Each structure stands twice: as structure tokens, then as C-alpha cells.
Amino acid sequence: MLEAGCDEAGRGCLAGPVFAAAVILPADFWLEDLDDSKKTSKDQREQLRKEIEDGALAFAVSYCTPTTIDKINILNASFEAMHHAIAKLDRDPEKLLIDGNRFKPFKGIPFECIIKGDGKIASIAAASILAKTYRDDYMERKHRKYPYYAWDTNKGYPTLAHRLAIEKYGPCSLHRKSFQLLPRPVQTQLF
Length: 191
Description:
Blueprint: E1 3-9, E2 18-24, H1 42-55, E3 58-64, H2 66-72, H3 74-88, E4 95-99, E5 111-114, H4 122-145, H5 151-154, H6 160-169
Parallel strand pairs: 1-4, 4-5
Antiparallel strand pairs: 1-2, 2-3
């Protein structure tokens, strides 16, 4: 049975697209360091990406823009990015293995949601690696246009440096306007 593992990267970011990947691996595929992308180093991810792309039966990566995220919300945008990635595969999967606990059905293909699947299922881990590395590459390219947000290091996540830059320079077109870009001021009550 051809199973495609699916995962996304960038749901918790303040800026940039959410990326998703779908990967179909051979039954005997094995890589020693293959794991959830959050548990691997940048160098490991880059090496794994090459080995996944060389060894996969099929893989595809897609994304949804910040504008789409703002229109349909981050959860639905994550599903849409996964749908786009699955549709781009050059083989039709017979089953989808989804990282997480929810998914919107796609073209009637049976699916199974697996919580923390990126640490349990090789094809989901592979999708995690591809989604993360493609997204990181994208954010590093955008860093050249918007260097003050430090996307070369934070990749759009809500770090202190990123939030301080938003406070100083304001948001740009890649920021998710539906997200709380800056913390709400602390309300103090006088007695």
C-alpha cells in the first residue's frame, strides 16, 4: 500500500507561509537520524533532506501564504498546504498518514491522524524534514529583503528580537495580520 506521510512547518510563526510536505517512502527505507525535524540540527536536516529526496518514491512540498492564513486561519491553511502537496505527488497515495490530531479529508483518500507522528512514522518524519528545510530556505531568502526581523535565525517565530523589530519597524507584507504580533500591554489596577 502506498502511504504518504504529511506534515507542516511554521504554524506558530508570526511571519511567512505555512509549508507542508507529503512523502511516499519505499517499505525498506531507513535513515539513522530520521526524526521529527524539531529534534534534529540544521546540518542533520540538510543531509536528511538530500537522502529523503534521493530515496523517496515520491515527494512534494507546498505552502499557503500569510494572506491565505489571515483569510482562512492557520489550521485550515495547514490543511490546504497539505492538500496542495498531496496533489503535487507524481503517484497517488492509497492512504495518508497525518501528523497531529485533525485533518480535512482529501479526494476521498483514507487517512489516519497520528499525534506526534513525526517521531513515530518514517514518512511523516521525512515530511517534517522537507517542510521545515524548504520553509527555512524561504525565510532565509526573505531575510535579505527584511534583515531587521532576523529571519535568518528566528525563521519568523515569535522571538524577542523579532517582536522588538516589529515594534520598531512595524509589520511587513509577510506578517500574519490575524496573529497577535506584539504582546498585549499589561493592565495594572490601582486600588
